[in-house]
Amino acid sequence: MGTLWVWALALTAILLSFGHVYTEITQTFIVRVRNDLKPSQFLDVEEWYSTTLRSLTSYKSMTLKSESGKGEKQRDFVHVYKTVFNGFAARLTNQQVEELSNLPQVLGIIGFPFGASACLPGSLDKKLVRGKIVVCDRGGSPRAAKGLAVKEAGGVGVIIENVDGEGEGLSADPHLIPGLAITESGGKPHKPWDINYPAISVVFDMSSRPSKYNIAVMRTATHVGNGSSSYSVVVTPPRGAKVTVDPPKMTFTEKGQKKSYVVRIQMQSVPPVNLYAESGKLTWTDGKHQVTSPLMVVWKDLPT
C-alpha cells in the first residue's frame, strides 16, 4: 500500500511537470540585433537568427500558413526587419526573453503591444489602420519610420505623441503622409479650463451625398489668464478645403470665462487618387500668446 502511494505521488508530480511545460505562455516580442556581430559561418542573418532561437530553452518552431493560403511551413520567427532597424519578431516565453537579453548581439527586446503603440515596423494591424489617422507613441524607432509604418499599413495620417521622458520638445520630420507631433502634456486628458484642445479631424465621405461635404465642429475655450484679453484666429486651411471660424475673434473680460466658437470645414476640390489626407491649423493669438489647434481632413472612398 505504501509503495502504491509513493508511485501515485510520483505520477502526479510528472503530470504537473508536463502541464507546466505545455501551458507556458508565449507572446510576440520584437528583438533588435547588431548584425555586424554575425559569425562568418552563417550565410545570412535569417540563418543566424534561427540558430539563435533554436538554442533557447524549450523553443519551438511555429507552423505558419503560406502567403498564398495553400500549405504550411515551419518558421522560427514571425518577421525579419532589415530597413529601419535590424532584428526579428518571434513568439517567446519570459524565460527565453531573459536568455536572449543576455546575448551580446541583442540591443533590446520590446513587447509587441508596445510595438503597436509605438508604430514599430510590421506591428500594426492593417484591418484596423487602413483609412485611419494613427496616434503613435514616440520612442522605439525613428519618428519618420513611424509614419512609414502607418503608411504601409494603409493609414492616411500620423500623430507622434511624446511619452513620459520625452517632455515638451518637438521636432520637424519628413513624413510620407500628413503628420503632426504633440507634446507630452498635449497627449494627456485636458482639464475643463484648458484652452488647448485636441486636433480637429473630419472625414469627407466621397460615397455620400453632397451635404456631407460641409462639416461644422464646435469648441469651447476657457480664459485662464488674469484680466481681459482678446484672441483673433488665423486660419491655415488644409489643401482642398475652405475653413471658416465663427466668431473669428473672442474677447474675455475675466478669468474662467467661457466662449464657444464653430469651425466650418467645406470641401472645395477632390484631391488626386493617391492623396487621402491634408493638414492645416487654427492659431488663436492675443498679440503675445498663441494657441494652435491642428486640423486634419481625410477624403474617404476616393474614385479609382
TrEMBL record:
Signal peptide: 1-23
Xref: Gene3D superfamilies: 2.60.40.2310, 3.50.30.30, Peptidase S8 propeptide/proteinase inhibitor I9 (3.30.70.80)
CDD domains according to UniProt: PA_subtilisin_like (cd02120)
Species this chain originates from: Actinidia rufa
Keywords tagged on the record: Glycoprotein, Signal
UniProt protein name: Subtilase family protein
Occurrences of domain Inhibitor I9 (ranges): 28-107
Domain PA stretches: 116-188
Keyword flag Calcium: no
Family to which the UniProt record says this protein belongs: Belongs to the peptidase S8 family.
Pfam families registered for this protein in UniProt: fn3_6, Inhibitor_I9, PA
Organism placement in taxonomy: Eukaryota, Viridiplantae, Streptophyta, Embryophyta, Tracheophyta
The Subtilisin-like protease fibronectin type-III domain, residue ranges: 194-297
Top-level taxon in the UniProt lineage: Eukaryota
